[in-house]
Amino acid sequence: MRGSVSLQAMSEATGEAYVRVASRAFILAFYGTMRNLKLYPFENAVVQQSLQELSMITGDLIAHEKECEFRVAGEFIFVNSTRLRLDLDNYSSFSALLTQFRQNGIGTLRTRRVPTIRDWTIVLGFLMNPQGADATERYDALLRRLEETGVDVFELAPLVESDEDHGGQVVEAKEKAKRTYTRSVEATKDVINSVRMGQSANIGKIKRVVQGIVDQILSDETSLVGLTTIRDYDDYTFTHSVNVCIFSIALGRRLALTRLQLYDLGMAALFHDIGKSRVPLDVINKADVLTDDEWRMIAAHPWLGVLALFSVRDQQEFPYRSMLVAFQHHMKRDLTGYPRSLRTKDLTFYSKIVAVADGFDAATSRRSYQTTPMAPSAVLQEMRDNARRGMDPVIVKAFINMLGIYPVGTFLVLDTFELAIVHAANTDPDMLSRPVVRVVSDDLGNVQYPGELVDLTERTESGDFRRTIIKTADPDRYGIRVGDYFV
Amino acid sequence: MSVTSAPVSDQGPEGLEPPFSPTLVEEMLGQLDRTIRAHLLYLNNHNNPSYVRSLEQARSAFAALWAATDAITLLVTDVALFWYGRRVFEEPTKATDSLPWMLFKDGLRELTLRQGFEERELSDFLAIIPRVRRGPSSQDDILTLFWEAEFTALQYRYVEVSDEEGETLETSPQPGKWPKGDGTPAEDPKNAITEARAEMAEVADAVADDGTGEGEGAAQDPRRAGIVRMEDFDSTLYFLDPKEVEYLRQETMREYAVDLRQVVLDSLLDIFEFQLDPLVRAEVLSHLEALMLHLLSAGQFTNVAYLLRESTLTLERAREVQPETKERLGSLAARLSEPAALEQLLEAMDVAPTLPSPADLNELFVQLHPSALATIFAWLPRTQNNGLRPLLEGAATRIAESATGELVKLIANPSLDVALEAIRRCGAMRTAAGVPAMSRVLEHGERELRLAAVSSLSDIGSPGALQAMERALQDGDRDVRVVVARALMTRQHRPALVKVEAVVKGKDIQKADRTERLVFFELYGTLCGDAGIPFLDGLLTAKGGLFARKEDPEMRACAAVALGRVGSAAARDALQRADGDKEVIVRNAVARALRGGAQ
Fold first, then answer.
1. By the 8 A CB rule, do A52 and A58 touch?
2. Are B349 and B388 in contact (CB under 8 A)?
3. Could you tell me if A94 and A86 are in contact, meaning their C-beta atoms sit under 8 angstroms apart?
4. Residue A186 and residue B164: Cβ atoms within 8 Å?
5. Residue A2 confidence (pLDDT) above 50
6. Is B190 on the interface with A (CB under 8 A)?
7. A-chain residue closest to B253, CA distance
8. How far apart, in Å, are the Cα atoms of A224 and each of A106, A190, B148?
9. Helices (H) and strands (E) in chain A, counts
10. Which one, A390, B73, B150, B367, has the greatest CB density within 10 A?
11. Sign of the CA dihedral running A9, A14, A17, A20
12. Chain A residues touching B260 at Cβ < 8 A
C-alpha cells in the first residue's frame, strides 16, 4: 500500500523533487522489506509484495537517474547524492538502516542494473544475518557471500569513517561538543546572573550558543548528550538548563522539527528555569528538607520566569515562546500542577517537550534538595507509567525511543560481570535494550579508563550475543565518575 | 556554515602581497553593493529590468573574480572591508544601508565567499538584507539569519561581546573515579559484581526449582533493584503509530499557529490574579503596560482589545487588590483613550502600508473609553488614508452608539471638526438627545455647524427637532434658511406656517435671491392650504385696480409655484386664470404648476 503510494508520488514528481520523493520511497521500502523478512517467512505475501515494491522503486530510480546509490556518511544518509531529511515517518527506518550499514561496515551500496527479487532477498538476508566479529570482518564476509551466490548486481564500498573513539574525527567531534557545552554553561550562567542582579542579559550570546547546540545535535548527537551526564561541572541550575536544552533539541530532532524550530525550542528550553534567578540562593542551594515557605518560593519559579524574561529582550521583541515554556513546564496535561492558571486552555507543544526533558534531567541529577538521583532507566519507566506526572505520553514514548531503555550514562552490570556505562542508544528500534557501552571495569572490579567501547549487538561466531545487560546500578555507590567517560 | 568567534586582526594579513589585483575584489564588492540597493529598491518587483540587469552584473563581477581565485576572505570593520590588508570597500557612515556596518554590528568579523556563491546563494543572501535592515523592530540579527540560511559558499566568523569559554571540562585526577574524601566513602566496584553474581545464582536456583522457569517461581519473580524488564517497555518501544505521528504533526502546527502574545497576556493576568503581593502585582502591571505599547506599535489590535477586556474581568475576580493597583489596571483603556495616546495610534495607522482588519480595529475600539470619540472625530477629516476612513467611521459609530451622552457633549466641543462630526453622527443615528445641543448651535454656532445641525435635525425629525429648525427660518445665513425651509417642506411641518407666512409677506423676501424666494413660497404653499390662496392669487394676478402696480414677475412666478403646491381646486382655478399671462416666466411657472396639480 505504502509502496504504491510512493510510486504514485514518484510518478508525479520531476527534477530535484523526484530525487527527494524517490529517495524517501526507497528508504521506506528498503527498511520495510527488511522488517517484513524478519517477521514473516519468505513465501509470505507481505514479504513478496514488499520485495516487489522495492524492486520497482529501485527500477524507477535507475530509469530516471541511471543508478541507485545508498551511501552512509557520518550521521547522514545520501541517496544518489541527495541528503535525506529526517521526518516523522522516516526517522525510525533512517536510524535502523544507518545502524545496519554501520554494523556491516558498508559505506555505499550502489546498483546500475535493476536487481531481481532474488538479488534483493539474498543481499537483505546477508545484511540481517552478518558473519564476523566486527564491521570489517562482516563487510569482507558479505562480499564473499555475494560472490558465492552469484549476486553481482550490487557494488559495495566500505565505510570510510572510523567507529573507533580514538579516530581523529570522533576526537574532534568530542572536543567540539565539549567546547559547545562549556560555552553554553558559561553563557547561561551569564544570563541567569545578569537577571539575578537586575541587569539586561546578552541575548546574542545565548542565540549563538543555542545555534551551536542545534548544529552539534544535528551532526553528532552522542557526544553532546553524553556530556549531560557530568553532574558536578558547575552550579546545578546552569548545567541543568543546558542539559534540558540539549535533551529538548535532541528530542525535537526525533520529532522531525526543522532546524529553525529546533532553535526556537532550544531557546525556550535554555530559559525554562530562569525564574530561579529570582529565588534566594540560600533556598536554591539548601541541602536540607525545604520548609513550606521555601517550597512555595521554589514553586514560584515558573511564573517568576515570565517576569524575569521581560528583561531578556531581543531588540524590540519579547521572548514570548520562552515565557510560555517557563510558565507551563511544571503544569500537567490536565492543567493541574503549578502555577495555577485560569486562562491556560492547553499547554504549548514546546512546553510539553521541555517538561519531559526537564523531568528526566532533574530526576537523574544530584542537586541540593535531591541527594539521591534515580537511575535513568527507572526515571523513564516512571515518566511512562506514572500518569500523575501528567506528561504527554506520545512525547515520553519518543523520548524513550531516543534515549533507549538504558539512557546514555546508565551504569550497568553485564553478564560477563564487567561494569559498563551506556555510551549511545542503539539506533535500531529493535535493539533498544542493546546500546553501545563503554566497559569501565573488568570482571574483578578493576576500574579502567577510558575503557573499551563495545556494541551490545555484537555476536559470537555461534550467533549468541557477546554481552548482555543483567542490571543497572548506582555509579556513585561504587565511586564511579560517569562524566569522566564522556570528557 | 559558520565558524565561531575567533580573534581577527583589524585589517587582515598586512605585509602579505595579494595574489592578484585588488581591483577585481573592489569591482565585485561595488557591484554587490549596487545590487543590494537595487534589491531593496525593487523589493516588490524582482522582474524589473533594472534589477535583473544589476543581478547579472553582480554575477559577472563574481565570475571575473573566480577566474583569478576560488575564494576570497574579507575582514569586516565598522566602516570598511579589507582584503590582504587593502581597503577594498568603504562606507564611512554607520547607517543601516552601509554594507560594512550591516555585517559588523551583530558581531560578524570575517566573511568568506566561495566560487558558486553568486549562482546558488546570492538570492538567499539578498533576501536576508531587507530583514536585517528592518531596523530595531526586527527580531533577527544577521548571524541568526545567516545561520538559518545554511550557506555553503558563504562562511563567516564572529565575535561575541563577552567571550569567556568557561572552565574546561576535565576528568578527575584518577579518571573514572570520584576524588576520595568528598563525601560518603564509596564501595569497592567489586561489590557490584559480587552482588550481581549472587543475584544471578539466585535466579538460576529459582528457575531450577521451578523446572520450566515459566511457572509460579518465574511469575513471582521479585523486582530486583536495577533489573529492567523488557515487557515493562513493550508499549513504549519501537515506532510511533500513524495516529501518534499525526498528533505530533498537528502539535507542531499548533505551536506555530497559536497567538503567543495572547497566551503571555493570559499568563501575566493569571499571575496578577493569584499573587497577592503588591510588589508582584505592580511589576505585572508595568509589564502589561509595556506589552500594550508594544502590541499597539506592532499593530496587534485584537490582543490589545483582549488585554483591555480581560483587565476588567481580572479586577472583578482578583482578591485583595490595593486601590492604587486597581486604579492603574482599570485605567488601561482610559489611558489609551487619552488624546495623546490615541493620536499616536491613529497616526501610526494613517501611515501604515497595510491596515488592520475591520474586525481587529472594532475589537479594539469597542474597548476604548467614550472620551476617545473626540480624538477619532478630530482625526477623521485629517486622515490621508482612504482605506482607514471607513474603518474609523465604523468604529466611531460603534462607540457613539454605546455612549450617546459623550456624543451629545461633543456637539459643544470647541474644535470645529469634532463638533461637526458629532452633529453629523447625531443625525445619522437619529439621536433625539442631541436636539437641545443642536438648537444651541443654531442660535450661536458657526455657519458650517448650523448647516450641519439643520441637516441632522431634519434627519432626526422629532417635534423638538422641527421646532428648533423653525427658529432657524430667520437665520442670518441664506444657505441655512434654504436648508431649513426645504427640510420643513419635506416634513410638512404646519406649526411653522406663521413664521413662513411672515417671511413671504415680509419685505425681506424681495431682497432674497430667486432660489430662496422659490423655496419659501413652495414651503408656504405646502403649509397654507386654501387659506393662503387669496394672498397668492392676489400676488399672481395683481388685480388691485387701475393704478395697481403689478408685482415683479419672479414673485408672481413664485406665487404660481406655491399655488401648485396647495393643489386644491380653488388653487387650480387661480392658476388657470393666470394661464396665458404675457410674462413668459409667469406663464411657464403657471403651466408647470398646473401640470403638477393635474398630477
1. no
2. yes
3. yes
4. yes
5. no
6. yes
7. A349
8. 26, 21, 21
9. 18, 10
10. B367
11. positive
12. 320-321, 324
Kindly tell me the burial class for residue A328, based on how many C-beta atoms sit within 10 Å of its own C-beta (0-12, 13-18, 19 or more).
buried
CB-based contact (8 Å) between B249 and chain A?
yes
pLDDT band at A143 (very low <50, low <70, confident <90, very high): very high
CB contact under 8 A, A207 and B137: no
d(CA B598, CA B596): 5
Q: What mean pLDDT is reported for chain A?
A: 86
The shortest C-alpha distance from B334 to chain A (Å) reads 24
How far apart are the C-alpha atoms of A472 and B7, rounded to whole Å?
A: 47
A interface mutation test: which of B229, B232, B236 has the most A CBs within 10 A? B236
Q: Give yes or no for a contact between A302 and A322, defined as CB atoms under 8 angstroms apart.
A: no
Whether a cis peptide bond, with omega within 30° of 0, leads into A339 is yes
Q: Cβ–Cβ of A306/B267 closer than 8 Å?
A: yes
Whether residue B471 contacts residue B436, with contact meaning beta carbons closer than 8 Å, is answered with no
Distance from CA of A376 to the nearest CA of B (A): 10
Residues of chain B with pLDDT under 70: 1-15, 134-140, 160-167, 180-185, 210-239, 542-550, 597-599
The cell for B91 is 562606507
Query: Could you report the predicted ipTM of this complex, rounded to two decimals?
Result: 0.74
Determine the residue of chain B that is closest to A471 in CA distance.
B227
The answer to whether B529 touches B566, Cβ cutoff 8 Å, is yes
Q: Any bridge partners for residue B87, and if so which?
A: B82
Grid coordinates representing A230? 557530568
> What pairs with residue B81 in β-bridges?
B76, B89
- Shortest Cα distance, chain B CAs vs residue A52, angstroms: 24
The cell for B587 is 406663464
Does A88 contact B147 at a Cβ distance shorter than 8 Å?
A: no
User: What pTM was estimated for this model as a whole?
Assistant: 0.73
Nearest Cα residue in chain B from A174: B169
